Amino acid sequence: MSEIHRPEARVEPIDSTIEPAGEPAKNKKVEEASLLADAWRSLRRNPWFIISAVLLVLFLSMAIFPQLFTNNDPRECLLGRSRQSPSAEHWFGTDVQGCDYYSRVIYGARNSIAVGFIVAIGTFIIAVLLGLVAGYFGSWVDAVISRFTDMVFAVPYILGALVFLNVLESRGVREVAFVLIIFMWPTMTRLMRGSVISVVNSEFVLAARALGAGPITIMRRHILPNSLGPVIGYATVFTGIIIGAEATLTFLGVGLQLPAISWGLQLSDAQPFLQTVPHLLLFPVIFVGLTVFAFMTMGDAIRDALDPKSKK
Amino acid sequence: MTQSQTPAGFTPGTRPGEVPLLEVKDLQVEFRTKAGVAKAINGLNFSLHAGETLAILGESGSGKSVTAQTIMGILDMPPGKIAGGEIRYRGEDLLSMDEESRRKLRGVKIAMIFQDALSSLNPVLPVGWQIAEMFRVHRGLKRKEAKVKAVEMMQRVGIPGAEERAGDFPHQFSGGMRQRIMIAMAIALDPDVLIADEPTTALDVTVQAQVMRLLKDLQTEFNMGLILITHDLGVVADVADKIAVMYSGRVMEAADVYEIYGRPGHPYTQGLLNSIPRIDDEGGRLRAISGLPPSLTDMPPGCPFNPRCEFATDRCRTERPELRPVAEGHLSACHYAEDVYAGTATRTRRPSPTGAGMIDVSEEAPQ
Amino acid sequence: MSLSVPAAADPFADKPSVLEVEGLVKHFPITQGIVFQRKVGAVKAVDGVSFNLREGETLGIVGESGCGKSTLAKLLMRLEEPDAGTVKFRGEDFLSVKGDELRRLRRKIQIIFQDPYTSLNPRMSVGDIIAEPFKLHPEEKPKQGIRNRVKELLDLVGLNPEHINRYPHQFSGGQRQRIGIARGLALNPDVIICDEPVSALDVSVQAQVMNLLDDLQKEFGLSYIFIAHDLSVVRHISDRVGVMYLGKLAELGTQEEIYTGPSHPYTQALLSAVPLPDPTLRGAREQIVLQGDPPNPANPPSGCRFRTRCWKATEICATQEPELISRGQITQLSACHHAQQNEKIIPAHS
């Protein structure tokens, strides 16, 4: 059976040394491929990666340089043109206040994506540190960290955020991100811990210990590079989840506040007019949906590419 | 690559005037991988009669396990693909049969045991229940009758306290006992052909001996044809009647067990026999075969063994040798089979000191 | 049966010991509970093992799975801390040293692992893997530069030095094992512990690696502890052999003594079960079939641990634990009250 499970390992050994002296060595160009280079090559061939990459580049440039996409000022609102339908002048129509809806949706990308990135980076750092320590040291260190993780995990983030954010008077990107980090780090931490545990008993870790390497060296050189793959993939997916979560919280009235511009706020404002002016809801939903989709697809592609076992 | 490896009508182990239990003709199996098409089996021929033990001997990547899976019809397709050939069970071609009739044979007339008994048994069901299921599903027995039969089978394969242990789960048994349970399930429906894929590789040597003995006894009792797939030259010598030596998806040599061990007619077989350390020999340096098996996606032209062969000539590097008779009932796929068989082949190269390559004999200083 | 095995001259008799192991014990506690663990028993993985290893010698350790041979390897490498016993490296106590002293001694004892697929870090290039010992022990930095030394090592183990930038997954099993050997050799060790180094390899590649180990031993005067379950492989490579059963040595002697005149019933059973690659010997050998499975190492039988499966067991075996000593005229050490050599287990090879 083993020969079925590891076709690649058997099929592709590169054996210039075994080539008989009588034959001229084959001039096969063997790529000096690191696993990262391998991952990049498989990503480039993945159509889903290409699609999500194009979408992400689009949304990121929207967030960073909204001026590139629109000349209208999203804050220039004339009540006289309230709730207009999409037209050549206002592509997405206008909202209740009479602001140009297209520019508001474009400018909304920044806050949503900013929350996504801040939370993803924050939870990534927490998850990697806690997961690494828990997985590597095991025993009581692991027990304490894991139980604590489980406790936080047991609180639904919406409940936690509702309670915390309700107390705060003014809520900006910082506050929302902070609360989301506090309630959303456990999933990734558990993933990291599992990933570390699957590596920590490998013989190459034993080999490093036998050579006299200390815990820091082992974690840095042997465990981190081999356990980060799934976590990096998940962090990308997670960014998408957070963008959805920010929209949810804002919609529920505990997220960002006016006069900030965000997709969540637009959804919240559009709700009463669902039947009369449906495009007010439609456009932010499409944008939120596409952003979340792009991050999740990208995350899946990255995780598959970084996992040597998933290669077929 | 569709031409047969052997002349038509000539398959190893043919007994005149008798339809063999199982007959494999010119079987070809491919795998699609990222690196290209891997020809896992490249023209395989053999036949098996009742009461006979055929050993398929080979290293990993030689195609021996793929052979077993193809005969059983459990090959993953894709990536696998049967590119040609026939597998005849009592004269009927399994490959052209519809899935329904094939399923009626699988596990009933042709059964298989695997190397890893723990992962082949369902961990959440009692072993007695799993054996009894065979009788319920295929024989339509009632729960109680099936249970009685299951305990009988467990007793037959030598599980002490079978009645009490029928309710235990797979993880509660030792490796040897689990392998016995697998055997009990495989022979429960009295199959004609039993395929054993590395049945004792995961077992300790003392347990391995017990399990092999059990298999051999059961074979005699039920008059089964046994296909033993293994890399272990010791086990093969102990139980096989005839042997097919596989390398890179092809049969290199096929003959009676005494012939293979006594007078190998292929340099690969010879190399294998020379390279293993023997327990009855403290010996000096082992005569290792240099190099590695070729990649299945990038086979050398000519004989697949030529880069590692001590007797290889230019002919071996260009022309693929057919499997042909060198003696009565002895087939070898080597251009110089007769010389190798007679021990008069000319050595053209020898392994380099590190064992990683070959050195031409002509380049050496004369001794 | 009389003593017909002549006590062959021991070629290592006048060589100094590099490794002296005395009364090594390792019990793994069996615990219950997750946060508050309580001990409910102990698996006696290694339970009083003593031997010495001399310069240039190979000591083979054989035994079936669960006999404690892999734990023994980890104890000798200080990858696990033993509960009792001493390990002396050239007279220095290896188990009590700390800090720089430990690092210095670690350089002298290296290990080669069984699985060439998991013993190399897949994210490091071959050059980095073999250079790691020099990074961890900067004082051993080679004069010619790390990269050149790594290339030398690759060449030494029969790999192409040009492949220094490749990654482990680009090599086959046998080649990966060669990489592991190169890493083990980097710091010029005196002792290499080989934990099943060839059992994951194909037959034809196995012989290459065994020959390589043989050559390296001769070239560098290395001492090996060769742990394996394959009795033929162990006989081939070892000068002396220890047979382990349930955490203890059952028999210890020269390769010749153990294989041609085994005195412990367990050794005899083990050897008689090894199939010979020769069909003409079918049925010619008497096979000793052991009853049952090895007992649970958490709860071994009293007295002699083999008595529950032994056909020679008497009362004394249940009450008194046999010591590993030389008995009567038997030259090897045997832990059996009824030790008796049997020369017919393995027929002489023509």
UniProtKB/TrEMBL annotation, chain A:
UniProt xrefs under CDD domains: TM_PBP2
Cellular component, GO, one term: plasma membrane
ABC transmembrane type-1 domain mapped to chain residues: 113-299
One of the GO biological process terms: transmembrane transport
Transmembrane segments: 48-69, 113-139, 151-168, 199-219, 231-260, 280-302
Compositional bias (Basic and acidic residues): 1-13
Region (Disordered): 1-23
Pfam families documented for this protein: BPD_transp_1, OppC_N
Keyword Transmembrane carried by entry: yes
InterPro entries: BP-dependent_transpt_permease, MetI-like, MetI-like_sf, OppC_N
Membrane topology: Multi-pass membrane protein
Entry's localization field: Cell membrane
Main location as per UniProt: membrane
Superkingdom of this protein's organism: Bacteria
Key words of the record: Cell membrane, Membrane, Transmembrane, Transmembrane helix, Transport
Protein family according to the UniProt entry: Belongs to the binding-protein-dependent transport system permease family.
Protein's recorded name: Peptide/nickel transport system permease protein/oligopeptide transport system permease protein
Protein species of origin: Nesterenkonia aurantiaca
Lineage of the organism: Bacteria, Bacillati, Actinomycetota, Actinomycetes, Micrococcales
Automatic annotation (TrEMBL), chain B:
Claim: Transport is one of the keywords in the record: yes
PROSITE patterns the UniProt entry points to: ABC_TRANSPORTER_1 (PS00211), ABC_TRANSPORTER_2 (PS50893)
Pfam families, alphabetized: ABC_tran, oligo_HPY
Cellular component terms (Gene Ontology): plasma membrane
InterPro entries: AAA+_ATPase, ABC_Ni/Peptide_Import, ABC_transporter-like_ATP-bd, ABC_transporter-like_CS, Oligopep_ABC_C, P-loop_NTPase
Keywords noted in UniProt: ATP-binding, Cell membrane, Membrane, Nucleotide-binding, Transport
Annotated family: Belongs to the ABC transporter superfamily.
Name this polypeptide is given: Peptide/nickel transport system ATP-binding protein/oligopeptide transport system ATP-binding protein
From TrEMBL, chain C:
ABC transporter domain location: 19-271
InterPro entries associated with the record: AAA+_ATPase, ABC_transp_ATP-bind, ABC_transporter-like_ATP-bd, ABC_transporter-like_CS, Oligopep_ABC_C, P-loop_NTPase
Pfam (any one): oligo_HPY
Gene Ontology molecular function, alphabetical: ATP binding; ATP hydrolysis activity
SMART domains, alphabetized: AAA
Keyword ATP-binding attached: yes
UniProt keyword terms in alphabetical order: ATP-binding, Nucleotide-binding, Transport
Record-stated family: Belongs to the ABC transporter superfamily.
Name recorded for this polypeptide: Peptide/nickel transport system ATP-binding protein/oligopeptide transport system ATP-binding protein
Annotated source species: Nesterenkonia aurantiaca
